[in-house]
Amino acid sequence: MEWLNRMKDALDYMEQHITEPMNMDEIAKTACSSPFHFQRLFNMLTGVTVAEYIRKRRLTLAAQELAMTQPRVLDVALKYGYDSPEAFTKAFRKAHGITPSAAREPGTVLKAFPRLSFHLSLKGDKEMDYRIVHKEAFNVVGKTMETSCRDGENLREIPRFWLKCNEDGTYNKLLELGEGVHDLLGICAEMNHEQETLTYWIAVENDAPAPDGYSTTIIPAATWAVFTSIGPMPNAIQSVWARIFQEWFPGTGYEHSGGPEFELYPPGDPSSEDYRCEIWIPVMTKS
């Protein structure tokens, strides 16, 4: 399949340039994708971010060099993108549990993060209903948070953010700002590749200026693929997210067009088995 070959090409590119500075735009270009969509797809398919994968591969190869040859630690640190032995030692210890110098000792146990490979896995035994919606640009007002994408931290921090907004009155304030529209939006904004962070909004549509303590932004016009999630939060919607990137994108003629994605939460009990909410993803047909 085309998407499989694109991901393989991106992995080849990363391996070929593993000792060089890598630009996310160039990596994504190799996969014929936007940087935002490539990072989301990669993370959904592998469970790690692009930056985390590159870092773990570099530390794996660095450990192999130290164990099998006798280069200076400084030379290995510089080769794999670390500006100082101290920074390299800190990262190396976190990955392997020992110092770089200790990796040279006979019998030392090292951890290896092998190169990833993608294989076609036949799923699709469960249909995915979706609809295509054209929506003009709209203004939102709400509160934001920045969360790390490392080790799935965003999947834990975002539900906590919702809980906090429910407890501190933000939820009710946003319903007031929604001017009769009781749907809340959870918006995933652009991912920061270097910092491996994601900006997340809890917001409502509103054209008025943001009150004190709140922020506002414009969601650009787009063609959206809209998916329905049924079940208790957050597990139900996280499962739909995974299926979108693992099954729907690879199996259709659409690709992510870049820009924000959002979740739409109607009134109701989010812990109930029949709670219905939606995922909106900006898409375009593959070129």
TrEMBL record:
Short name of one Pfam family: HTH_18
Keyword Transcription recorded: yes
Keyword presence, DNA-binding: yes
Molecular function per GO: DNA-binding transcription factor activity; sequence-specific DNA binding
InterPro entries per record: AraC_E-bd, GyrI-like, Homeodomain-like_sf, HTH_AraC, HTH_AraC-typ_CS, MarA-like, Reg_factor_effector_dom_sf, Tscrpt_reg_AraC-type_HTH
Keywords (A to Z) from UniProt: DNA-binding, Transcription, Transcription regulation
Name of the protein: AraC family transcriptional regulator
Organism of this sequence: Paenibacillus durus
Taxonomic placement: Bacteria, Bacillati, Bacillota, Bacilli, Bacillales
